[in-house]
User: Which sequence fits this backbone?
């Protein structure tokens, strides 16, 4: 997706060979128009898949997921990382290790909002080693719902997340695929 | 805002005299179309205010804030509650006590994205005792930016948040104002 790649080139900051900072438009400050374009692109790629629900994780997945949900006309669920007084239902949970935060956390989705009749599109901001994606997949499978695929904003293609997800039979659609962050430079998969 | 009140009546769950659960459309599962309508309403109420930036808090403020940002054509910043490897700038911080989570946390915004030239609209999902709002106000004032007002999705008018914010001179626009949750019933301020 060219607008996204252009934004990464102009506003992304390479912090190390593995870490790309995109807090100018995705992870802290959000560019709403770019999110709308991203939502449109996800919707285009999965429009024929009978999606009934989008599932993402708080916090940075929410903006692109809601824009895709608006365009597909389906609700969005964001998995919670932190306990809340008002999230008191029976919960579907999975353990997820976060590379960028270097902690393991439990993500949770209420059984009220997901069931075996659902066909789910997973959306997330980053795909690296696939830990978050696998946590979401586990939760959706516990609910008995089917998975149409994963829509990823930025894929670090030099890590093994896509490879493992595809080996498990999942369709992965990433809007920007980063081949390398070496020497402080972003290069994309062609 | 009538669509919002209707949604609260049909999908809100009163957990106690003080706690309203809206995780069917705002706090866990999100209704994207309702968020678009909410964003439109906030934009209408603040369109003449020269807003340059919207500031909210992760996670439930993000969806309404991004929809308002799309309509006003301005970026959205969400204050972070949790440390991240990629949020390494100089940070503006404030301590916030969360009633629903019963913990004190530090919220943070990078100095990169907010400065004295900004005129800010604060958006949040709930206003109760105003602790989160005051944390955001502190951060925005530390940046030297001016505050056009606060856009709140659901106000618990039986708590003192609005009163205190208005006493401090801030404009508060709430789309649904709840007078009482007593006897398991939602009643709105007329």
Assistant:
């Amino acid at each position: 997706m060219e607008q996204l790649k252009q934004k990464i080139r102009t506003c992304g900051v390479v912090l190390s060979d593995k870490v790309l900072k995109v807090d100018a438009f995705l992870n802290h400050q959000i560019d709403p128009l770019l999110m709308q374009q991203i939502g449109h692109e996800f919707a285009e790629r999965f429009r024929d898949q009978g999606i009934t629900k989008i599932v993402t994780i708080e916090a940075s997945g929410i903006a692109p997921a809601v824009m895709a949900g608006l365009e597909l006309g389906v609700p969005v669920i964001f998995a919670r990382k932190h306990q809340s007084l008002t999230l008191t239902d029976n919960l579907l949970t999975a353990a997820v290790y976060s590379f960028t935060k270097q902690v393991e956390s439990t993500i949770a989705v209420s059984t009220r909002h997901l069931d075996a009749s659902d066909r789910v599109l997973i959306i997330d901001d980053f795909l690296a080693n696939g830990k978050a994606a696998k946590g979401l997949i586990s939760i959706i499978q516990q609910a008995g719902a089917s998975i149409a695929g994963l829509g990823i904003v930025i894929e670090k293609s030099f890590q093994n997340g896509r490879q493992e997800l595809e080996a498990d039979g999942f369709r992965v659609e990433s809007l920007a695929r980063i081949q390398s962050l070496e020497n402080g430079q972003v290069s994309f998969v062609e």
In short: Residues 2-188 of chain B form a domain with the Rossmann fold fold (CATH 3.40.50.2020).
